[in-house]
Design goal:
By secondary structure, this protein is mostly helical. The strands form 3 sheets. Strands 1-2-3 form a 3-stranded antiparallel sheet, covered by helices on one side. A 3-stranded antiparallel sheet has the order 6-7-8, with no helix packed on it. It has a two-stranded antiparallel ribbon with strand order 4-5. The protein is globular and about 75 Å long.
Length: 453
């Protein structure tokens, strides 16, 4: 016998009038309920599909022909009562992730020939079985969390967790790691192992920070398999991040790159153009830039959603940027074509155009897109080093240098920190302050010269 697991809208509302969404586990005549953490207006719930309404159902001509007058009237009344929530896709994604988790628990109980009931499945999901948690292999837990993030379409978070997990497995020789062994001493040993592998200190910091996130955010706060008093990071001292030089170009160096001659059959021609387009559009990040389509160009502006923060951006296109666009406009076949020739217009991922498309698609397609983007960034960064050599610029140039250069030029022209922050798309002005500070060597040089002049 298999458990029936589905999302339901609980019949009793909260005081604010919203109804809580639960996952009901029905097995052998008994039900248990797992909280999703969401409550919604009743009109936002699609009872037929057991999910939140993501779009308004349409009364098509074909459907209308199959319905009676009374049924059409009922359909229209139903439409009037539907409420579309802005976070509907997110809620449904998390509901599906929770149902997948519960189904996985049931499958594990079956495989291990353990007793099954709706309450046991719920308890495993709520992690109330402390003895089980104590014996649990923490490596397996990290893998489960990474897989859950993948299903929730948090592809980069999933990959970051997996990268750190591979290093943990190498450190342990692929042996299991009981949760009780994850102590401050273990953290120090793992850090020492990473350092002996001759990894850069900042990269060691990144891996330890990732492990801290998994323990504090996932294991303690989210899944509660570890109590706060057992947090091994309380007495662990995190390695400091070493300052790194943010390379940037000045106006003369940018002109040198602009004046380089390449045939349009040479990939360096396109690499140079995409770098300059980033520069002339407030240092748009390369991952966003590669995904730009002609539909993002409207009324002399570049309009797109930032991949890192999901913030909507609208940037006025300067003559320099328009000149670059004109080079590629002749090869445009449709508005949904990529502007720059680094991604394939015939690939399945090319169908992802709007933010809604990205929310509705499957995680495998997103992962294939991100993998392709990473490979193209690698090619672009390699090509930029060739371009720097040809222009006789003795600096290590990468795609992100366009962003540094924009910020530095704006700073030197006395653009306000507030405006620079907005142009860079930073969520907090303190981020911009740190960014600008790392680029400002001249003021210190001038101060030194003043002391001894």
């Amino acid at each position: 016998m298999k458990a029936k697991i589905k999302a339901i809208l609980f019949p009793k509302p909260y005081l604010n009038g919203e109804y809580p969404v639960y996952i009901r586990i029905y097995f052998n005549g008994k039900s248990s309920y797992v909280k999703t953490g969401y409550s919604i207006p009743s009109g936002a719930w699609n009872e037929d599909n057991a999910e939140v309404w993501e779009s308004m159902p349409s009364l098509t001509k074909k459907l209308k022909e199959t319905l009676s007058v009374e049924e059409i009237k009922a359909f229209k009344e139903k439409q009037n009562n539907i409420i579309l929530l802005p976070n509907a896709f997110k809620i449904n994604s998390e509901i599906r992730g929770l149902i997948t988790k519960l189904e996985g628990i049931e499958n594990s109980l079956n495989v291990n020939k353990e007793e099954i009931s709706s309450e046991i499945i719920k308890n495993r999901a709520d992690n109330k079985d402390k003895n089980e948690n104590a014996k649990k292999d923490f490596l397996q837990y990290i893998q489960e969390v990474a897989d859950k993030k993948f299903q929730m379409k948090q592809i980069r978070t999933s990959e970051r967790y997996n990268v750190m997990l591979r290093k943990l497995k190498a450190f342990l020789g692929n042996k299991p790691l009981p949760l009780s062994k994850v102590t401050t001493g273990f953290l120090n040993d793992f850090q020492l192992y990473l350092q002996k592998e001759k990894l850069h200190q900042n990269y060691v910091h990144v891996n330890m920070k990732t492990l801290r996130t998994i323990i504090q955010k996932e294991a303690i706060r989210e899944d509660k398999i570890l109590t706060p008093d057992k947090n091994p990071f309380v007495f662990y001292t995190m390695l400091k991040v070493l300052p790194t030089k943010k390379e940037r170009l000045d106006i003369k160096e940018i002109e040198l790159i602009e004046n380089l001659q390449y045939p349009d059959t040479d990939i360096h021609f396109h690499i140079r153009n995409i770098f300059l387009f980033s520069l002339y559009n407030a240092g748009i990040r390369i991952g966003d830039l590669l995904q730009l389509k002609w539909v993002n160009i409207s009324e002399g502006r570049l309009k797109y959603s930032m991949g890192k923060t999901d913030k909507e951006r609208s940037i006025k296109l300067l003559p320099q940027a328009l000149k670059i666009l004109k080079i590629y406009e002749a090869k445009k076949e449709k508005e949904t074509d990529f502007i720059f020739p680094f991604l394939d217009n015939k690939a399945d991922y090319s169908k992802l155009v709007t933010p809604e498309d990205f929310q509705k698609t499957n995680p495998e397609l997103l992962a294939s897109l991100f993998k392709k983007i990473e490979s193209r960034i690698s090619i672009i960064n390699s090509g930029l080093k060739d371009i720097a050599g040809k222009a006789k610029i003795k600096k290590s140039i990468s795609s992100h240098v366009a962003r540094h250069s924009f910020a530095d030029i704006a700073r030197k022209k006395d653009i306000s920190i507030y405006d620079i922050s907005k142009m860079l798309g930073h969520s907090d002005i303190t981020v911009t302050q740190g960014y600008i500070k790392s680029l400002d060597y001249e003021s210190m040089d001038e101060a030194m010269e003043t002391v001894f002049s």
